Amino acid sequence: MSVADDRYSLPGSPLGAHDGPVFDHPWQAQAFALVVNLHQAGLFEWKDWAERFTAEIAAAPQREDESVNDAYYRQWVAALEQLLAALGLVEDAAVGTRAEAWNQAYLNTPHGQPISLANATCPPAHDHAHKHEPRREPVMVVPAGGD
After folding, report:
1. What is the C-alpha separation between 43 and 119, in angstroms, rounded?
2. How distant is the alpha carbon of residue 18 from its chain centre?
3. Cα angle: 97, vertex 99, 104; to 5 degrees
4. Cα distance between residue 122 and residue 101, in whole Å
5. CB contact at 8 A, 9 and 46
6. Cα(84)–Cα(88) distance, rounded to whole angstroms?
7. Which residues touch 66 (CB under 8 Å, ≥6 apart)?
8. Which residues of 102-111 are buried (b: 16+ CB within 10 A; e: fewer)?
9. Mean pLDDT per 10-residue section of the chain, whose length is 147 residues
10. What are phi and psi of 58, to 5 degrees?
11. Long-range contacts of 95-100 (CB under 8 A, 24+ apart)
12. 78 touches 68 (CB < 8 A)
């Protein structure tokens, strides 16, 4: 295999500059593993994934307000969503609905607790094991033009 073909080879667990993990958050590892597992299940060729991911990086480059790692996994997930839709495994509307549910679960989860999708539908007063008041405002507000 030539050096140019290396970009199409299936990766193992990615390592950073010091051979440490490159995942800042567990969801990043899960998104990575999902793509690798779908490939290993035979749903697509790795070359097709690499081309789709490369196109997403070109279409949505790193923003000034995000780290390299945040940009990488934002692009990874966007390419994954496109792939799932192209394979007919999920509809675009379902992705948006699920993303909103996770956002609501985040807002309804007390600080320091793991986010559970079950919290997405919890009204302010409810009678099950987790006790919390839903958070309806951002964690921090920075005034326009503020530092």
Report:
1. 32
2. 24
3. 95
4. 11
5. yes
6. 6
7. 74
8. eebbebbbee
9. 42 55 80 92 94 95 91 93 88 81 82 81 56 55 58
10. -70, -35
11. none
12. no
| Sign of the alpha-carbon torsion through 28, 34, 40, 45 | negative
Q: For residues 30 and 70, what is the distance between their CA atoms, to the nearest angstrom?
A: 14
Burial 9-32 (b: 16+ CB within 10 A, else e): eeeeeeeeeeeeebbeeeebbebb
Residues 6 or more apart whose CB falls under 8 angstroms from that of 26 comprise: none
Instruction: Check residue 20 and give its pLDDT.
Output: 57
pLDDT recorded at residue 142: 56
68 is written with which tokens? 């390299």
